[in-house]
Structure formats: C-alpha cells, structure tokens
User: What shape does this take?
Amino acid sequence: MKKSDKYLKYTSILYALYLPINFFIHVYQANKGVILPFLMNISDLLRVFVIAAFSFYVMKTYSAVERDNNFKHPGERLMTFAGVAFLEWIFNVIMSDAYVESYSHKFFYVVMGISTLIGFYMELRVFFNFSETYGSFIVFCWIAVNVVLAFLCWRLYIRESRGGVPIIIGAVVIRAIIRAVIIYKYVKDQSGAEDVSLEEG
Amino acid sequence: MKTVEERIKDLKKIAMIYLFLGMVWAVFLIVAEKTGWVNFRGDERDRYYLGLDGVDESFSQCSLNKMDFKLPYKVFNFLSVKDGVLTELISCDAGKEIDLRAFHPIYEVVDDNFIVFRDRIKNKSYLMEKDGRIIYEGANSIDASLYEEYGLFSLDDRAFINKEGKEILDEWYNNIVFWNEKLLVEKDEESNTYYGVFDLNGNCIVDPVCVEEKHGDDWIYLKDSDGNGRLLDSELNDVIEGDKVRKYVSYNKGVSQENYFIVQDNEGKCYICDEKGNEYIADGYDRGLSWKDYKDIDIMFSQNDKQDTSTNRKYAFILTTLDNKIEIYTIEDTFFAEPTDLITGEGSYYYFDDLDVVCFEPYEGNTKVIIPKGKEPYTVECLGMAFYDDYIEVYKDHFETYYITYDGEEYNEKVR
Assistant: This one.
C-alpha cells in the first residue's frame, strides 16, 4: 500500500467537514456584508482540491458491481463536480472586479446557478450510490432532503422573494449532516474491508 | 469491469480535461470581457444610487448620472462574484436589518469634481477625482464641509489636505479647529497640551507652544509657558496693547457665556476687561472698590446649583492686595470679609452665596480656609467638607467626622 493511499482516506473527513464550513463562511460573510474575497478565493480553490482528492479516494475504494456499461462510477461524478467547481472558481476570480451594485449581473446568477446545480446533482447521485448499501432509511433521508431543498429553491425562484432563504440554509445544514453520516458509514466499511484484506494478505 | 488502475487513469484524464477547459474558459472570459463580446455584468443602470452615511433616512441616497463619475471599481472590488450573488440572494429584500457594508460604502460627492468615499471593510477613506484617479487615501475619515469655501478637506480634525491631496501642515495634531479662516492646532507632548495658530496655506502665525487657548467667535486668548497671555481679535491683532493679560475667566449666564480677562498694567496693577478690551466696571465700583489697588483679581461663581443657568448667577471677586492678602468682594455685600493672610499658594475657591461663606482649598496640603461673611477667617485641617444651612460637616480623615458652625465653633446640636 502506497503512503499516499494511506492518507487518501482522510480526504473523506475533509470532504464532510470542509465543504459545509467553506459554504457557511460564505453565507456568514454575505449576511454580515463583510467579505474577504482573497481568502475566500484561496478557500474555494482548496475546496476544488478536496473534492478532487475525495474522488480519487472513491475511485479507489468504491467497488459496487457495475450494473451495465452505462454505469458511471461515483468517483467520475465527483471529479465532474470538482471540474465544475474549478471552472466556477476561474469565473469568480476573473470576474470579481466587475461586480458592482450598479449592474444587473444576471449572467453571474446564471453561471453560479448552473455550477451549483451540477454540483448538487453529482452529489445527489454519488451519495445515493453510497447510501444504497446502508438501508432504505438512509436512502430515504438523503433523497428527501435533496427533494425538499430543490423544492425550496424552486419556490424561491418562482416567487422571487427572499423570505425562504433561512429555511434553505437550514435544509443545507441537514443535507450536510446526512452526507457526513453516509461518508462516515462508507469510510467505516472501507476500513473494515482493508483490515480483512490485510489479514488475508 | 475495469481495474482500479484503469479507473484512476480515467479519472486523471477527466481531471486533465477540466484543467484544459479551465484554461480555455479563463482565456475566453478575459478576451470576452475586454472586447465586450459577452455582457457579463448585465445591464448598467442609468443612475448610480449611493448610500450616504449619517444623513437623515429620507435623504440617505444620492444619485449620479452614469457619465458623471467613473466609479472606483478597482478600489471597490472586494465583492467576488460568488459572494456578491450570495449577498444579494441572502440579504437583499430579505426584509430584515442587515449590515450591508460591502454594498453601501459611504460616498459623498463634492463640488461635482470629487468623490469622497469610505470603504468600511478596509476602514479607509479615499478622495477621488472625476476620472477615477485617487488623490488621497488614508485611515482617517475625510470631511469635505470646508471644501466649497476654502478648498480644504479635514482628516478627522487632525490634519488638512488641499484638492491636490497634499497635507497643508507639516505634522499631524491631536485636534485642529477651523476658526476665522485660520487653523487652531492642539498637540499633546509629554502630558502637556500646546496650542498654536496656522493660516490656511500652512504658514505658522503662532508657534504651537502656548499652554492655554480659549476662543470665541471673534476673539482668542493665548497664554505662553511664561504666563504671558494675549487677547487677540479675529485678525490676530492684539486687543490689549502693552498690558499683560493674566487670566481668562468665563461663566454661563443663561444661554450665553460671559468672558472676562484679568489684565495687569505696566505698573503691576490689575483690572478686568471683556473680549473687546473694554474695562469692566463692577457694580460696586463706586462703593469704594478700585481695581488699581490690587495686584491680582479673579472671579469665582457661586456653587449654588439653582443658579447654574440663571442669568442672575452670583459671583465674587478674589482680590490680592499689594501686601499679598486675600480679600473677597461681592456686588451685594461689597467687602465680604476682612483681608486675610491665611491663604497662600495656589488652590481652588468655592463661593456659597446662600450660605454666605467662601472656602479655599489648596492644591497641596489639607489646610482649608473658611471665610464667613463679616467674620474672622479661620483654617480647618481636614480631607473634605460638606456645607449645610447651620453647620459644616468636616471629614477629618477617612473614619472621623465632626461638625462646626460657620463661626468655627463646635456644633453640638448635631447628634449622630
């Protein structure tokens, strides 16, 4: 076992913790109106690396039976998530000094919306794949929180009112917790499998 | 089914594809932004609405035609796209009070040529020209209230800059007051405060070495460290020629303030004048008082709280005789008590007109002097005193208190 492989499993902890922390720092700053773009750009770039590293980990460890030839491995989906996050980061950095209140900047909404949507979808599929192994309750929770979140966002978009934002933030928190539980179970399973394989070896 | 190695290889391929896409995306964005192919920012609003701080809510916004000013994108670029979108999504129109400092920096348009703005994130102020050129930036706030008339901007009343962004004084002061087209400066040095006067070009008129400064609308009193005072008018000409202004005394009389100056002439005799230099004649002057018989004069006002803002506030003169005795004179009572030599050195006087008593408290030592009206003055050794209608409560030390009458005798009727 390579040394890098040994440390790769810690990327799952990073993924479970760093992504929500990064997101909620953004939310906190936006809410307070005190924004540190340089630090947050560094933080967002790190987020890309965290997602990419986790995708490597998943690629190495996830070994469910491929159902058909079209089955896409969760690791690949995560790498797509990382790639889109990277493109979003580039857009954010290059367009930053163009953000002035006096403009309508609808394009910014479009780009950020698309990248968020892709990330949301990729995570939905990846953690659905993971949760399938851990019983229908976990699957239900994961699907439910995502459906609720999508519904709330859709309602926000239709009504064009910001009243529902705190509920959406709450749903994101619950989603992050369920995601962390799935990751925890997945990593626990993988460690067990590694121990068995080591003993056999 | 692919092996792990094959899958990793695939993953690396995807990563490389996104890296390449990222580079293409970056080039596209830069070129599109420069050439204007894609309108990333969206439509520019016709007018800029800028938040103004410290202004009444109904006037809290001012608007500019979009061609009037080049707004400071480069300075005001702390919003990233992601944070900007999030801020709008989370905060705007949320119907709650949110500190949107990033969205609403403090702006002020000056003379249609300058814009003063404060970045409340970096806590910096900027003075910017119409073309977007920043001519001054600093941590202190910039006040443009003097610009229109004098072409100056105040930096927190500690320095002044002109419209080229240059500081007009050589150094920063603790406080600068704009007075009659002059700058009264105040600086603290080793626990002392010094005052001076400069003109609006930064030329020194009075060196900042004066230890006392008082001013009104059209007069200023400056005293140097040797105790020599000067009373000057708004053009800084001496109001009193030749004679020495020794002291400034003021008190509030109703809504206005009365100002008196104790002046000593060349012969060492004193008199009192107002800010115009007119000699003040006390009401009792014709009843035997002649200022010229004294070598120093001071005025003390009654401690009676009820008279604080009264136009009839009582006051008494402290007169130092030629043989260094202290005499108290009031308008109602003329000579309050016999001249006493018990008072020596510097200290504070307290006059209670309703109790007919004056108390002197030296700056050093605990020997207080009580001067009852028409009676012999006497001394009391104590830490402090409280004056009541019939008696004086004397705090001998931190533990012991006793009572005396205004004659200085023991007061026995007070039973504790």
Observations:
- The first strand of chain B starts at residue 47 and ends at 51.
